[in-house]
Amino acid sequence: MLKYTFKNLSKAPSKGAAVYFARQNNQEEALLDAQGKLADEATGGQLSRAIEATDFKAAAASTLELIAPHGLKLNAIIIVGLGKISELNEDTLTDIGANAFGAAQKISERVNFVVGHESIEVDPILMGAALRGYKWDKYQTVKKVTKGRANDIHVYSDNQAADKAAWDSKQHVAEGVLYARDLINEPSNELNPETYAQRLREFSKIGIEVELLGEKELTKLGFGSLLSVGQGSAYESHVVVMQYNGGDKGDAPIALVGKGVTFDTGGISIKPSAGMGDMKGDMGGSAAVVGAIRALAARKAKVNVVCVVGLVENMPSSTATKPGDVVTSLSGQTIENLNTDAEGRLVLADILWYTQERFNPKVMLNAATLTGAIVVALGVHYGGFFTNDETLVAKMKTAGDQVGEPIWQMPLHKFYDKKIDTPNADVKNMADRWGGAIYAAQFLQRFVNDTPWVHVDLAGTIMGADKTPTNQGWASAYGVRLFERFISEYEKD
After folding, report:
1. Most CB atoms closer than 10 Å: which of 21, 26, 86, 108?
2. CA-wise closest residue to 486 among 173, 115, 125
3. Span 182-216, pLDDT tens digits
4. Rounded CA gap, 55 and 6, in Å?
5. Who's near 61: CB < 8 A, 6+ residues apart?
């Protein structure tokens, strides 16, 4: 866990690694800020000579490392590029903070950010550092100790009180992301529908009401679709309902709904063995919404939020659902299950219906690692979203762009909807080969009434994606910051 200390800019760091910022002028030359120039003088011009020798141009998030700088007790100085000041935004600053921290943490346990430029907001810099500092090593019994791994961040600025206040709030968002990454990284023998549900009980400590529904309650209520997915597993399926009430009493909540398949073998329609280990992350959608409500509650957001996750394990056994089986969902609609590896939509069908009927939310967002087809369509950088309310499109895109979790709208259309009709039930869970992400979304829409709704398919972005400045590991927890930012626009002043 990183420790943060805020200090006045009049003091210069004397130990650890110091990060100084350089902007890029119109001639693509690196220009140190006032604090960087002071450090350059203290080293007898070592910084400016290094910039010239390496042709460092201060492109955004680029770094230049100077080890054991002359005349100072610092372990290192890291010069990080801002790019052109006119092009700076929150996403870029987050990457800048991440790369600066990534360079510094290899050298020193203490990292000093010396923020001398008024255009630099500190909280996105620290967001980048916090996310870059994440490491999953819980089950390493002989840990590889990296010398000088950073655990202490000092921030030097002219606005230390305001910077601290801003980070005190945003730090909870970073912690929500890291919590979600931990969930996704957990092996399925440790995180199953039963242990996952018990972990979420702990949210009561941060002001979230937590309600666990086991198979007895779910059967009584009529969750036939969700229960059919988990009936081949030795673990009991659960639905966990979390409520955070930070807004006005009686104000309709924003709803977050997540698919939590803690391991997906594909069931009787079993997956190939190659890469199946990654299916421990098939609960990534639930992790994203869980991380978001955790962040909102921890920072005491002035909004009402309900989060509902369906926790199941999809296993083949003598009791498992078989291709061709017909089940009755909570909505009363019957579903023909033609492929038991298209199980996530059966989980979501029941919890979407339950959430809208019980809570009547003003907006309902669901997240799921739902289809490989969305990865084929968009790759691993953009998530895909579908909505029945066009007024939500710009809000989703803006939130994603701001926090560096970009998202792209995908279509819903009656042409696709009719393809999931079947003579054997009200709806089937598969259509033809092409447009799989769309058919999955059309299926979900059958279980959403007039509630403004957004379905986010994050199969390509939440795990196993390319490394980025803010994520050097397997689980990214894409979606936590997107949902938190989207919901923040509904907060009461």
Report:
1. 21
2. 173
3. 999 999 999 999 999 999 999 999 999 999 999 99
4. 33
5. 80, 81, 83, 92, 95, 96, 98, 99, 469
3-class SS letters over 439-466: HHHHHHHCCCCCCCEEEEECCCCCECCC
Per residue in 278-314, pLDDT (tens digit) is: 999 999 999 999 999 999 999 999 999 999 999 999 9
Alpha carbon 286 to chain centroid distance? 10
**What distance in Å separates the CA atoms of residue 344 and residue 429, rounded to the nearest whole number?**
10
Parts of the chain belonging to CATH 3.40.630.10: 172-488
Catalytic annotation, pick one of 106, 164, 271, 397: 271
Compute CA distances 232 → 169, 226, 236, 429, whole Å.
Answer: 43, 12, 10, 18
CB 462 within 8 A of CB 478: yes
Kindly report the CATH class assigned to 3-157. Answer: alpha beta
Query: Which of 345, 446, 481, 485 is labelled catalytic?
Result: 345
What's the confidence (pLDDT) of residue 125?
A: 98
Q: What is the model's pTM? A: 0.97
Q: Is 291 exposed, middle or buried (0-12, 13-18, 19+ CB in 10 A)?
A: buried
Give per-residue burial for 363-381: e unless 16+ CB within 10 Å, then b: bbbbbbbbbebbbebbebe
Contacts of residue 336, Cβ cutoff 8 Å, sequence gap at least 6: 324, 325, 326, 422, 424, 425, 427, 428, 429
The domain made up of 172-488 has a fold known as Aminopeptidase (3.40.630)
Residue 271 annotated in active site: yes
Distance CA 38, CA 44 (A): 10
What's the CA gap between 363 and 349, in Å, rounded?
17
199 is annotated as an active-site residue:
no
